[in-house]
Design a protein that fits this description.
By secondary structure, the chain is of the alpha/beta class. The protein folds into three domains: 229 residues, FAD/NAD(P)-binding domain (3-Layer(bba) Sandwich), CATH 3.50.50.60; 134 residues, FAD/NAD(P)-binding domain (3-Layer(bba) Sandwich); 53 residues, no CATH class. The protein has 16 helices and 18 strands. A seven-stranded mixed β-sheet has the order 3-2-1-7-18-17-16, with helices on one face. A five-stranded parallel β-sheet has the order 8-15-9-10-11, with helices on both faces. Strand 13 and strand 14 form a beta hairpin. The longest helix is centred in the middle third of the chain and has 19 residues. The chain is globular. It binds flavin-adenine dinucleotide.
């Protein structure tokens, strides 16, 4: 850990948190609650409001949490905190936009309660790069050639962008005849129905009516809810290889069945266990939860790859479930014929007038007003700060090429297979390769507490009287 030497209130140690989404806020909250000596905490986040990021920057009340309120507390030691804040049942699935407000409230309280020598700032900037400083710490490179020297950096930049929907769509996206009919980053577009491609807006002033989506997971569920909720004549067709929608949460029906992990248990065994439980598999997910990261870590790359290839989609629809009321709404749209699921892959994308035409490997030809990439986020750093650190040799990739390699359990970023930085940490989706299940709040808040403990004992110990 960086030695910070003697500090004065005008020259306090500096902590930079890069990214002010859920993970950045959770770690800021934990640092504020622990800091005792002088400390400047800066969160670099280009968005005007903290705590939103990709998941919670939605004002659509149809976009609800996929974890019940009782498990969404920001504070590991007060598991009921979010439910109490919201005044809801522990089993309620609340709008995600409310969750961002909750995080901001917890952050504001932590700022108010922090000792006077602890300062918090939101710096509305993107960090372009980091340079290691001789003697410890980093220089953060910001836009307009602005530079900032800091003692410790916590990377909380989340996923880097959408996953690839396959060669046929990637190719069409770069072609001038189709590019304007394809929405690649539905998170950035957020409100896809309102963001009609230019030609479609001319054909239909209210925006696209008939959407086609690639991928039928939780990203698709969000898009369907917004689009179908907007106008009764709107329709959406989702295409995926397996044709599965996520399962719905069923609530607790009984004690989780016993599950014991040994040092030989590998990722594929988790699927065998769940399948063996028949219709009790939902309780099995709870039994597995405390073991998933350990099992992932002790599995070989070959076992992980086999699990992803053979059972990745199956795992995803069973592990990442949707709220029961959302599932009910989807079922009724399906029965009305407004939502359809097509099984297959996309083999060709072309244009006919103002419409996009998709041909599947099963030979179906589907046309719509726009094509959405709903394949979810890509774990491989491709263009943001994490990718930049990899290119410059300041970090290594995580297992499977996902996220960054980190030392465990400290979460310090590895600069080589054998050495980790002493003052650079990563949290949340950035450690996907190392921990696999690391993107939901219950996991991120535990990581936040762990990093904050280390950072505060190094940078902000109690000042001697
Ligand atoms: C649609 C969706 C729904 C989800 N629902 C739930 C749920 O119900 N319950 C649950 O527990 N989990 C849920 N999750 C998972 C989870 O909470 C998220 O993955 C979480 O958003 C991760 O937070 P993050 O801060 O790491 O990343 P992000 O939310 O992506 O935030 C990263 C932030 O970093 C900023 N940033 C990026 N690069 C830079 C840079 N170079 N400089 C400065 N800032 C930068 C970005 O602007 C962004 O605001 C959901 C995820 C998604 C995508």
């Amino acid at each position: 850990m960086t030695s910070v030497g003697t500090t004065t209130p005008s020259n306090p140690p500096r902590l930079l948190i890069v990214g002010g989404g859920a993970a950045g806020c959770l770690v800021a909250i934990q640092v504020l609650r622990r800091a005792r000596g002088p400390l400047l905490i800066e969160v670099a986040e280009p968005r005007p409001r903290l705590a939103e990021g990709v998941a919670y920057a939605t004002g659509d009340p149809a976009h609800v949490l996929n974890v019940p309120a009782g498990r969404m507390s920001a504070l590991p030691e007060q598991p009921d905190d979010f439910r109490r804040w919201a005044g809801s049942d522990a089993s309620a699935f609340l709008p995600r936009g409310r969750y961002a407000q909750y995080l901001r409230d917890v952050l504001a309280q932590a700022i108010a309660d922090a000792p006077p020598q602890v300062t918090f700032r939101h710096r509305q900037d993107r960090v372009l790069s980091l340079r290691a400083r001789t003697g410890g710490g980093f220089t953060a490179v910001l836009p307009h050639r602005f530079r900032r020297d800091v003692d410790v950096v916590i990377l909380a930049t989340g996923y880097d962008g959408p996953g690839s929907p396959g060669d046929a769509v990637d190719d069409a996206r770069s072609r001038p005849d189709c590019g304007d009919l394809i929405v690649d980053d539905v998170w950035a577009a957020r409100d896809t129905s309102a963001r009609a491609p230019s030609t479609t807006s001319q054909a239909s002033p209210e925006g696209p009516r008939e959407l086609i989506a690639i991928g039928t997971g939780l990203t698709f569920v969000d898009q369907a809810a917004t689009h179908l909720g907007r106008a009764p004549e709107n329709t959406i067709i989702g295409i995926s290889r397996h044709g599965w929608l996520p399962h719905a949460h069923r609530g607790h029906h009984g004690e989780p069945p016993p599950f014991t992990a040994t040092s030989d248990t590998e990722v594929g065994d988790m699927v065998t266990f769940l399948r063996g439980l028949g219709d009790k598999w939902q309780d099995g997910v709870d039994a597995l939860r405390p073991h998933i990261q350990t099992i992932w870590r002790q599995s070989t790359d070959e076992q992980r790859q086999r699990f992803l290839t053979e059972n990745g989609a199956w795992w995803s629809v069973h592990r990442h479930r949707m709220a029961p009321e959302v599932a009910e709404r989807l079922r009724s749209w399906q029965s009305e014929g407004r939502l359809q699921i097509v099984r297959g892959a996309v083999s060709e994308v072309s244009r006919s007038g103002s419409r996009v035409v998709v041909t599947t490997t099963g030979g179906q030809v589907i046309s719509g007003d726009a094509l959405l990439n709903c394949t979810g986020r890509d774990g491989r750093p491709r263009r943001g700060l994490a990718a930049e650190l990899l290119t410059r040799g300041l970090a290594t990739s995580g297992p499977m090429g996902w996220g960054l390699g980190v030392d465990l359990p400290s979460l310090r970023v590895r600069r080589s297979a054998t050495e980790a930085h002493t003052s650079l940490y990563a949290i949340g989706p950035l450690v996907l390769g190392e921990l696999f299940e690391t993107t939901a709040i219950p996991e991120i808040r535990a990581q936040a507490a762990l990093i904050a403990e280390a950072v505060c004992s190094a940078l902000s110990p109690v000042t001697p009287a």
